[in-house]
Specification:
four-stranded mixed β-sheet; 3 helices; 17% helix
């Protein structure tokens, strides 16, 4: 059994040394790399990892008012069904995360935001997937639409943030990033107002 770190902030460990890497597959969306590593204890292993784009992605919690979040329901090829979640998309070349978030909002829900604040950078399956998502809270919305690249119109769903417990039992809300971002946004708003999300 390994040593247990009981401190509130775990100590930093030396990263393994990269002995070499090779690109073994590439598509329009993905790059798969095999990387050889030597750990500080001398163990040498090979891993395969799926590389993401350097700028990463954005996922936005857009608040229409003090308690209403705007979600989107759109087709997800990975699960081959319609999924409910937060607006999201990749950061394009030359954009910062605020610009990317505002563009995605305009493309997916037809609103821009005068206030966009970062919540947290998140990863999914960091053991093999090198992709980061920047979760952001968008407030003070205004109507503004940009054309997007979706093959069909996205359904926009308004939801009361005071009823997140009921949202969690929806069969079509399965994306961990959206679930985490909603709770992060709710906590940020509670701390900002010093009380529950307003009804």
């Amino acid at each position: 059994m390994g040593d247990i770190d009981r401190s509130s902030r775990p100590g930093m460990r030396d990263k393994p040394e990269i002995l070499g890497s090779k690109m073994i597959a590439r598509s329009q969306l993905f790059r798969i790399e095999r990387v050889g590593l030597r750990f500080p204890n001398g163990a040498e292993v090979e891993y395969e990892r799926l590389l993401g784009t350097a700028p990463g992605a954005v996922l936005i919690v857009p608040m229409l008012d003090a308690s209403t979040v705007l979600l989107v329901r759109e087709y997800a090829a990975g699960t081959h069904r319609y999924e409910l979640g937060c607006p999201k998309g990749r950061v394009e070349s030359g954009e910062n995360i605020i610009e990317a978030a505002n563009r995605e909002l305009m493309e997916e829900i037809g609103f821009g935001a005068r206030s966009i604040r970062p919540l947290r950078r998140m990863t999914i399956a960091p053991g093999y997937l090198g992709h980061t998502t920047n979760a952001l809270l968008a407030e003070d919305l205004y109507e503004q639409r940009l054309p997007g690249d979706e093959p069909e119109e996205i359904e926009v769903v308004a939801w009361d943030m005071n009823r997140l417990d009921l949202l969690l039992v929806q069969d079509d809300l399965t994306e961990a990033r959206s679930i985490a971002a909603l709770f992060l946004a709710r906590e940020r708003m509670r701390h900002a107002t010093g009380r529950e999300v307003r009804e």
